[in-house]
Recover the amino acids of this structure.
């Protein structure tokens, strides 16, 4: 792969990773603010899911970039 | 709800230990007495293993790294030295990348960076790990000996291997957690991001490791900017059993890293 294209794709993947992190942080901050059930647990669980689904997507994308 | 069991031994700068596939924090029994002479050693059971529980049976090394931060918070530790072994080393990489402010230094033992550039074990090793889940715990422990230990240890230290197996069988791990951790290891991929790990790092690996080929240690040491490489000539995967003197070196590394 062309080095410039590779750099751009890597930057895009890194940007997506940052977006996932921000989304998780927002959900966890909301969970802290809403300290009543089930809202607190649901928001923490959705933050976990966002992180883990994102992790699978990022792993796959980086796998393709490295292949 | 995910709940994590952790323990703390000794005083001094904190070291957090992350164990490998299917094993609880108690599996550090050879290393904790050495490190805790001069350091505060924190061990914990990874999610789904030992006395820890997980909400879902889908794990990633990212999630397991976030678990480490929860343990550090519970232990009142802001920054710690981190020692990850095998799967635990993959979690340690994620921790150093996701939460660099919590990491003083890292030891990566018998682990790999993930992704297609990682060196894969031979087909017979992969076949063994696939059929391992259908074996009894006792049979699996015995059958894993040629994969876990180097030739010298199998020849000269049968007593140590027997002790490892006895302790492992005393704490069998749930099959679901084992499979979930296998998935986490398969998905792990830090290869491209190793260059972003800023903490001083020691990469330790047995030359005869069949589970995680030693070429992975070279990849890690080459790509992590402040990494040192220590290859143990007479050891396989479970090098702490085979060359226990390495634990002294690791303690020194943490003390010097400050």
């Amino acid at each position: 792969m062309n080095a410039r294209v590779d750099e751009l794709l890597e930057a895009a993947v890194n940007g997506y990773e940052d977006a996932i992190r921000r989304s998780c942080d927002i959900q966890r901050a909301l969970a802290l603010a809403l300290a009543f059930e089930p809202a607190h647990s649901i928001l923490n669980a959705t933050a976990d899911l966002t992180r883990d689904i994102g992790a699978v997507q990022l792993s796959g994308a980086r796998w393709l970039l490295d292949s | 709800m995910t709940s994590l069991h952790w323990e703390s031994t000794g005083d001094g700068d904190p070291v957090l230990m992350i164990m490998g596939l299917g094993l609880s924090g108690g599996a550090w029994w050879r290393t904790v007495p050495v490190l805790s002479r001069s350091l505060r050693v924190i061990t914990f059971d990874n999610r789904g293993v030992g006395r820890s529980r997980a909400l879902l049976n889908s794990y990633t090394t990212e999630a397991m790294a976030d678990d480490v931060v929860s343990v550090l918070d519970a232990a009142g530790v802001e920054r710690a030295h981190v020692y990850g072994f095998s799967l635990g080393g993959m979690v340690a990489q994620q921790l150093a990348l996701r939460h660099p402010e919590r990491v003083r230094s890292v030891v990566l033992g018998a682990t790999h960076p993930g992704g297609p550039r990682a060196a894969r074990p031979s087909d017979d090793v992969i076949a063994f790990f696939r059929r391992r889940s259908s074996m009894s715990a006792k049979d699996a422990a015995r059958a894993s000996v040629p994969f876990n230990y180097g030739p010298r240890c199998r020849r000269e230290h049968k007593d140590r291997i027997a002790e490892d197996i006895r302790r492992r069988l005393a704490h069998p791990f749930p099959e679901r957690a084992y499979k979930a951790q296998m998935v986490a290891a398969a998905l792990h991929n830090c290869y491209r991001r190793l260059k972003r790990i800023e903490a001083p790092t020691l990469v330790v690996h047995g030359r005869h490791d069949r589970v995680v080929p030693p070429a992975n240690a070279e990849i890690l040491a080459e790509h992590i900017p402040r990494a040192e490489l220590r290859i143990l000539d007479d050891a396989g995967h479970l090098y702490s059993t085979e060359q226990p003197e390495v634990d002294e070196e690791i303690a020194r590394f943490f003390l010097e890293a400050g």
